[in-house]
Amino acid sequence: GGTTASIDLLLQNLFIDMEGSGTTTDAINIQGDTVSTGVVIEGCTIHDFDQDGIIIEAGNDETVVRNCRIYDGVTANEGRYGISSVSDGSLIQNCSIRTASAAGAGIYMNVALLAQIDSCHIAAHAANTIGILAAALTTMFVTNCFINAAAAGNIIDYTTSATVPSSSIAWEAIQGTDPTIGVLTTSTVGGL
Questions:
Q1: 9 vs 181, residue with greater confidence
Q2: What CA–CA distance (Å, rounded) separates 86 from 190?
Q3: Hey, which end of the chain has fewer CB within 10 Å, N or C?
């Protein structure tokens, strides 16, 4: 579900332990020169990623990332993004992502059109870590996600307000860990 393309590349049930790898090393990188439609990454576990857990570069449209567990154990280097995508029409579904980088996000969408993020559990543990970050005119639809962030403005953040049409209203059990802040029902623009 989520893509109409045939599967051109399937990465399934991989366990990638990146403990001790370099600070600029990605676990899975679907590079821009691949230019494939219908990449499926399913059932993978990525432990202690040091830059990005999964990165999908431009031209790899309708990519599906499903049933993956991506977490930064922070034993060597802080990971930046659990999933980073510039893919149009992508689907990220039923993934569990934990990151603690002060400059990162669980999911980072950059110029990604019509992205779908569904039924994910995202934990953004550092003070400036964002659950889902939408940059540069990304349009995305977020449904049925549990997002835990250390600061309220860090649940879902759009870097620009010009991301129409986007919908991020069907969240479930969103919480900021700051006890003075209640459950949020709206996203932020620039952390505000």
A1: 9
A2: 19
A3: C
Structure tokens at 183: 């459950």
Question: Which range has highest mean pLDDT (36-40, 55-59, 123-127, 135-139)?
Answer: 55-59
Sign of CA dihedral 10, 16, 18, 22: negative
Lookup: tokens for 61 = 């449209």
How far apart CA 21 and CA 26 sit, in angstroms, is 9
- Sign, CA dihedral 87-97-103-140, equals positive
Q: What is the DSSP string of the chain?
A: ----SPPSEEEES-EEE-TT--TT--SEEE-TTT--S-EEEES-EEES-SSEEEEE-TT--S-EEES-EEE---SSS--SEEEEE--TT-EEES-EEEE--TT-EEEEEES--SEEEES-EEEE-STT-EEEEEETT--EEEES-EEEESSGGGSEEESSS---S-EEEE--S-EESSTTS----S-EETT-
Amino acid occupying residue 23: T
138 close to 166: Cβ distance less than 8 angstroms = yes
| Strand order, beta sheet including 188-189 | 28-30, 52-56, 81-85, 105-110, 130-135, 156-158, 188-189
Paired with 84 in beta bridges are 55, 108
pTM of the model: 0.82
Q: How many CB atoms lie within 10 A of CB 133?
A: 23
Residue in this structure with the two tokens 């919480």, named with its chain if needed: 175
